[in-house]
């Protein structure tokens, strides 16, 4: 995972920022890197040119008819499917039954479905004549969280993760809404084959919550074994956005996410005689302070960056100075240049602080950058503009709102970071009703964030049906037949 002040109403922004602060922690896990971040003018140049040439969305016949069809599908099929997914979550890389059910639903609609791509991932393809190829993605995994929402279909599931640890499992990040919406979108696109031409690829991705799934699917030949997309699109449900609203960010939307470990060496001894030791806790404190100079004095004020020391573990007893300390950092950035400066700077500062404390080079801290990592999510501006125009044509300008990027992470970014630099766009759909948000605000508390045991959409029908309508509108627009 996975957010920012994507609120449509200014009086709700402060509470949403609180929710975002919690949500930004979700993406501390790394994901595989595929290529360098593209400069905005060059990324997907040919596709962007095609989008720019047709900035006015193609008309979508039967506006009310589509909405009525989606609502009817929800009442007949999708509500039960959503409640099934919500009640039966599975942990990252363990999404066996989830993937099987999603594959079965898409196969029944008429898509050609391949299972077991990148672990438990699935790929569903529908070819409908000549034209571009569009990929829509849903993630599938739940979180090791014990649900406390009180809904009648709440999860009581426990699961064992890939490391053998057992825990309660919950769809606390709304991946159940994503899967339900992609099934609804698939059905709408199948029923409207006379309105589009091209190839639609739907993927069910595993392991988004640990930042591995996208890279695994790519490594397993996603873009070689199946039609390579011209465009990638996804959405995410977020708790702090009012239901009925959609938010988006053109350009950099979410950050590079790196996990860094520093092993700080010292010379242990008695706490009463610190002059006879080299205290690794003291040295760690000096490193923490010095690291902030990387942000405040080495980066341009216009280049965002974050270094947070999330943990320092050392020592065993009050009066013992230990031999080492273990520091754990999360490092956030947008561009590859800033990322590289921060990572090399962390090692430089750690070593310099050790030298100033009188340690020898052999005793300098060990700095380890976890690999793979989650790269920044870059929303192609031309694709974003085209998709936003299609959504505003259906929902109105006030319901589709541009907002600002955040330092959370999302491995959907991986699908753009290939040699092809496929134009990619992710948007956000509201998951909490305005009345509920107003109630939280009146009580002076923030709405439960994604990853909270208290979060599930309080009006899942509104959230899911709007997501289906948005994804269908964008898909019909991108795949609209060209004249001549």
Explain what the structure shows.
The protein is of the alpha+beta class and 484 residues long. It has helices at residues 13-23, 45-52, 63-87, 96-109, 175-191, 213-219, 222-225, 280-298, 336-356, 381-395, 434-442, 460-478, and strands at 112-117, 121-128, 133-139, 158-160, 166-168, 198-205, 231-242, 246-248, 251-254, 256-265, 269-270, 305-314, 320-321, 324-333, 366-369, 377-379, 400-402, 424-432. An eight-stranded mixed sheet has the order 1-2-6-3-7-18-8-17, sandwiched between helices. It has a four-stranded antiparallel sheet with strand order 12-14-10-15, with helices on one face. Strand 1 (112-117) and strand 2 form a beta hairpin. The longest helix has 25 residues, at 63-87. The protein starts with 12 loop residues before the first helix and ends in a 6-residue tail after the last helix. Residues 1-45 and 52-62 have low confidence and may be disordered.
In short:
With 484 residues, this protein is of the alpha+beta class. It has two domains: 10-255 and 376-478, Zn peptidases (Aminopeptidase), CATH 3.40.630; 256-369, Alpha-Beta Plaits.
């Amino acid at each position: 995972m996975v957010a920012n002040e994507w609120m449509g109403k200014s009086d709700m922004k402060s509470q949403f920022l609180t929710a975002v602060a919690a949500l930004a922690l979700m993406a501390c896990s790394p994901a595989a890197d595929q290529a360098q971040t593209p400069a905005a003018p060059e990324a997907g140049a040919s596709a962007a040119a095609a989008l720019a040439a047709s900035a006015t969305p193609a008309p979508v016949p039967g506006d009310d008819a589509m909405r009525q069809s989606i609502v009817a599908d929800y009442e007949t099929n999708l509500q039960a499917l959503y409640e099934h997914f919500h009640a039966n979550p599975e942990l990252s890389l363990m999404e066996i039954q989830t993937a099987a059910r999603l594959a079965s639903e898409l196969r029944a609609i008429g898509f050609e479905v391949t299972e077991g791509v990148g672990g438990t991932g699935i790929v569903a393809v529908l070819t409908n004549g000549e034209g571009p190829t569009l990929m829509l993605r849903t993630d599938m995994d739940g979180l090791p969280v014990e649900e406390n929402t009180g809904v009648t279909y709440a999860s009581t599931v426990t699961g064992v993760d890939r490391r053998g640890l057992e825990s309660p499992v919950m769809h606390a990040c709304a991946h159940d809404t994503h899967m339900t919406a992609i099934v609804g979108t698939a059905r709408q696109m199948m029923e409207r084959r006379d309105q589009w031409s091209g190839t639609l690829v739907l993927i069910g991705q595993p392991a988004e919550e640990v930042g591995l799934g996208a890279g695994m699917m790519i490594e397993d030949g996603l873009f070689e074994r199946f039609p390579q997309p011209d465009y990638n699109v996804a959405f995410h449900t977020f708790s702090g956005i009012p239901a009925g609203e959609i938010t988006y960010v053109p350009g950099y939307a979410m950050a590079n996410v790196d996990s860094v470990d520093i092993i700080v060496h010292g010379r242990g001894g008695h706490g009463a005689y610190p002059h006879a030791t080299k205290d690794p806790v003291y040295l760690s404190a000096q490193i923490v302070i010095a690291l902030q100079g990387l942000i405040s004095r080495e980066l341009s004020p216009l280049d965002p960056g974050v270094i947070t020391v999330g943990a320092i573990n050392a020592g065993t007893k009050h009066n013992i100075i230990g031999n080492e300390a273990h520091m754990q950092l999360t490092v956030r950035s947008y561009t590859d240049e800033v990322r590289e400066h921060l990572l090399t700077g962390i090692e430089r500062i750690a070593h310099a602080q050790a030298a100033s404390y009188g340690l020898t080079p052999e005793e300098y801290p060990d700095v380890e950058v976890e690999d793979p990592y989650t790269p920044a999510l870059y929303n192609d501006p031309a694709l974003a503009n085209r998709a936003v125009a299609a959504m505003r044509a259906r929902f109105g300008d006030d319901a589709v709102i541009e907002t600002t990027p955040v330092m959370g992470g999302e491995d959907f970014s991986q699908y753009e970071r290939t040699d092809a630099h496929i134009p990619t766009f992710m948007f956000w759909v509201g998951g909490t009703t305005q009345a509920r948000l107003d109630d939280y605000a009146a009580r002076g508390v923030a709405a439960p964030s994604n990853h909270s045991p208290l979060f599930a959409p309080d009006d899942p029908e509104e959230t899911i049906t709007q997501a289906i309508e948005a994804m269908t509108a964008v898909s019909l627009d991108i795949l609209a037949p060209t004249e001549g």
